[in-house]
Amino acid sequence: MSKRAFNFCAGPAALPEPVLQRAQAELLDWKGKGLSVMEMSHRSDEFVSIAETAERDLRDLLSIPANYKVLFLQGGASQQFAQIPLNLLPEGGKADYIDTGIWSKKAIDEARRYGGVNVAASAKPSDYFCIPAQREWQLSSGAAYVHYTPNETIGGLEFGWIPEVGEVPLVADMSSTILSRPLDVSRFGLIYAGAQKNIGPSGLVVVIVREDLLGKARGGCPTMLDYKVAADNGSMYNTPPTFAWYLAGLIFQWMKEQGGVEKMGEINERKQRKLYQAIDASALYNNPIAKADRSWMNVPFRLADERLDTPFLAGAEARGLLNLKGHRSVGGMRASIYNAVDEGAVDALLAYMAEFEKEHG
Ligand code: PMP
Predict the structure, then answer these.
(1) 2 assigned to some structural domain
(2) Ligand 1 centre distance from Cα of residue 345 (Å)
(3) 85-95, pLDDT tens digit by residue?
């Protein structure tokens, strides 16, 4: 067996090894059917059972109420930036957006193509180091929805709370935080998440949408982008990304075996606490985010001297600690510690960081 590295990639991210082993074992012959999941009709009983089991397991994991549809779609989270206004923002209407970093800005820019966007609050005055308190938000009256990004994957800024927006549907890009801890789905109108972090491989985006928000797509919305069409067709209006859906299902099963989102939340809380504590205690590493707003899943950090970045990354790679380079737009380092990155991986990173600081600090 080849040795698997510790993978801190922001996405596509590490997948649980037992899931990969199971997919490998089932690759040539899924449950004695003599073919792989990739080669099955999406309309076959076999694949429909895979799809339904995946949905049921996700519903169990997040206790998704019965009045929500779960959609398994394509186009990534980026396509949702357009699909949301196409479905929820009436012609001439407006929506409120909260700007907390690069991903929320992308959502804002895309929504502006479809209607009025009010940026009700922005983290810009703090250089995106701090989430604006809800009492400062300038929510508009008559907004079709309020959109925010609970976890900014690049900036490492995460909401530890759910905004209170009354009757207005709350829409959340949970790409990099979904399933990292328990979540009260009933607080949201719509949740979406690109799969390639805590859900599975890329090529899939999961949308959890309250039923009363279906059937509102504006005229001209492509059929493929109408949530109601997707819901009415069990996310199979066309051929879905079957293998990604199957792998997502294996991950949901793995998560249930691990003890679900409660257990994941406990482990993730410990992982992030250890890492931030080490960063804060060090003279070499630094994370600028306000303590209450630090991401559990994406931990960016800088070295005191940028010239140490290259040797730091080289030493990390030599020890099998991969993908620690920060996003090209912000530089520095970033450790993404999603569910499949276990505590042992974080401990290995911490040991290396301490060793590097001793040598170079
Ligand atoms: N939103 C967030 C918070 C993300 O982290 C990402 C991807 N890293 C996206 C949106 C875009 O996702 P996709 O590549 O699936 O379009």
Answers:
(1) no
(2) 24
(3) 999 999 999 99
